[in-house]
Amino acid sequence: MTWTRISTAVVHEGPFIAVRQDVVVRPDGVRGTYEHVAMNDVVRVAALNDMGDVTLVEDHFYLQRRRVLHLPGGGAEGQEPRDAAGRELAEETGLTASHLKPLGVIDPLPGVTAARVHLFVATGLRTGAPAREATEAGMKVITMPLREAVAAARAGRITEAASVAALLLVSLELEGGKK
Q1: What is the pTM of this model?
Q2: What are phi and psi of 119, to 5 degrees?
């Protein structure tokens, strides 16, 4: 059995998200409601330079009430994920990539949103000037060896879910290529 949507209503709509309330029939046959967030898919980019260093960004997140270290990325805004990944990388870091390879897709909060995060690895990097949004004014670019970034994720210093997933996938991919 699966979930069946009977109807849907917008509870709140803002520029980036909508909160919806659906009337549903659950898999057990009981009728109920289900609230969820409707939003665009997101991208995260693990940009690797020729020395094996990864570029991260750090900025203040309102809900966490602290600075968060994570991979560059953001909303796909209706673009193809690869195009959005290139745009976000350039906007936040000034880097452009000759190659953007998909790493995979994750469902970060499947009980809250259907939005997915598309993960990429970027190589063949060229430097340029960032073109950040006003909310990213305090963003800082940090480059570190990939192994240090993975260690930071394992130690809880990098906590953003998609960044953790992408760092681990890149690390596994590179280890697989060395065998």
Answers
A1: 0.93
A2: -105, 140
